[in-house]
Design goal:
This protein is an alpha/beta fold and 388 residues long. The protein is built from 14 helices and twelve strands. The protein has two domains: 138 residues, Aspartate Aminotransferase, domain 1 (Alpha-Beta Complex); 237 residues, 3-Layer(aba) Sandwich (Aspartate Aminotransferase, domain 2). Bound molecules: pyridoxal-5'-phosphate. The site of pyridoxal-5'-phosphate (PLP) has 14 residues, from helix 4.
């Protein structure tokens, strides 16, 4: 049975060309990029080439890219780095209630360190209201962190509008763009972002590497102290193969992103339409239009998410019951609750995320298999009997 992978938002397979680009840096050109001899300097050149490719993808300057171990470290660095660098100015941070745990838990930690955090609510589509950001800013606000697109519901936030507000108020704007870099074209200058987090493994690159974009002039205390790597902004010997892989993934995305987004949007719409037509009591979560090209998040009443997911897995179909990071727990997704779903609806949700190797035949197969699974599960569900 061929596997149908529809969980690209959790992680993507590494592109074969990325693997090929990385291989020489494991044992051939293995030198430490801080070393002055040739094989160290070759590694350094490869890092700088990757930096340029990463910068080009988001319209940044090379020196504004700081390589990290992934999205989580980039998020931590942005928030803690700015909080400590600007604590002379204020102690207030604004974020949203639907952020990834990398942001939410960092904010909770900062609360224990004397910082105050406002967690903005979202509307039923998972959208932050820029007016709420404006109203929440006080004289003590130092940073606003709103994700570019939500990893569960797929909703894309009005970052440009929020940026106008933060810019006028002299407050930094950070965006967690882990789900959008290389999937949706954008430019940090046009959007007016000061800091941005990215992770390579969501973009057909390797796991354990990402970057933080830091606009020139942004004050930031390093999160990792030690050597002078990354111009003193992130200590530790560079993950050379990982960074080279990130650069290659960025280059491929630059070339293919627009066409790929169109193709995936078409398949996504087919999947949504088919689900809504073929199964009763289904609702699409997230914004109907302003959403990631590859995201489908559905609540299917009277069927339990984990049970649907495991039954799909038996048919060779991989999807998720919410964010991969929260799978394995029985807590309903904090994102879906924030959108106004009740815990039962949240527990009956599935997320399909499409990608580069998703085909129309795969979508047809899901549309054939899932309604049958739902019928079977509902027949066993006491909830269906009482409601249906
Ligand atoms: N932010 C978002 C929106 C994510 O989806 C993820 C991963 O799922 C992360 C941050 C964490 O990134 P990483 O796995 O590279 O630490």
């Amino acid at each position: 049975m061929d596997r149908i992978y529809l969980d690209y938002a959790a992680t993507t397979p590494t592109h074969p060309d990325v693997v090929k680009a990385m291989l020489p840096y494991f044992s051939g050109t293995f030198g430490n990029p801080s070393s002055i001899y040739a094989c160290g300097q070759e590694a350094k050149e490869a890092i700088e080439e990757a930096r340029s490719r990463a910068a080009l993808l988001i319209g940044a300057r090379d020196e504004e890219i700081v390589f990290t171990s992934g999205g989580t470290e980039a998020d931590n660095t942005a928030l803690k780095g700015v909080a400590y660098a600007r604590k002379d100015r204020g102690n207030h941070i604004i974020t949203s209630s639907i952020e990834h745990h990398a942001i939410l838990e960092t904010c909770h930690f900062l609360e224990t360190q004397g910082f105050e955090v406002t967690f903005l609510s979202v509307d039923g589509h998972g959208m932050v209201d820029p007016d709420d950001v404006s109203r929440a800013i006080t004289g003590k606000t130092i940073i606003v962190s709103i994700m570019h697109a939500n990893n569960e519901a797929g909703t894309i936030q009005p970052i440009a509008e929020i940026a106008k507000i933060t810019c006028e108020a002299g407050v930094y704007l950070h965006t967690d763009a882990v789900q959008t870099v290389g999937h949706v074209p954008f430019n940090v200058d046009k959007l007016g972002i000061d800091l941005l987090s990215m992770s390579a493994h969501k973009l057909y690159g390797p796991k354990g590497v990402g970057f933080l974009y830091v606009r020139k002039g942004t004050r930031l205390v390093p999160f990792m102290h030690g050597g002078e790597q990354e111009s003193g902004r992130r200590a530790s010997t560079h993950n050379v193969p990982g960074i080279v892989g990130l650069g290659k993934a960025a280059q491929i995305a630059q070339q293919e992103m627009v066409e790929e987004a169109e193709r995936v949007t078409r398949l996504r719409n087919k999947l949504i339409k088919g689900m809504l037509e073929n199964i009763d009591h289904v609702q699409l979560n997230g914004h109907p239009q302003v959403r990631l090209p590859n995201n489908v998040n559905l609540s299917i009443s009277y069927a339990e998410g984990e049970a649907m997911c495991l039954n799909l897995d038996r048919e060779g179909i991989c999807c998720s019951t919410g964010s991969a990071c929260s799978s394995g727990t029985t807590e309903p997704s904090h994102v879906l609750l924030a959108l106004g779903l009740d815990p039962l609806q949240a527990h009956s949700s599935l997320r399909f995320s499409l990608g580069k190797w998703t085909t129309e035949e795969e979508i047809d197969r899901v549309l054939d298999v899932l309604p049958r699974i739902v019928t079977k599960l509902r027949a066993m569900s006491p909830l269906q009997k009482s409601h249906g």
